[in-house]
Design brief:
The chain has about 60 residues and is of the alpha+beta class. Helices cover about 30% and strands about 25% of the residues. It has one domain. It has a three-stranded antiparallel sheet, with helices on one face.
Length: about 60
Amino acid sequence: MHDRHIEEVPPATPTATSTGHDPVTVERGSFCIARCPCGWSGPARRSRDRARTDVAEHLAAP
């Protein structure tokens, strides 16, 4: 069984929040996955920092 820990992502920009994006990072074992309520999810990463970078890139995308 995997422990799930949700870690806060740095505050989103007002534009990102107004479009319904409120991403979080979810830990599964030694991996961290970025997810967003819009249905987007990033690849599993061993680096939490890289998962946060995936979130920033998702928020910056049109």
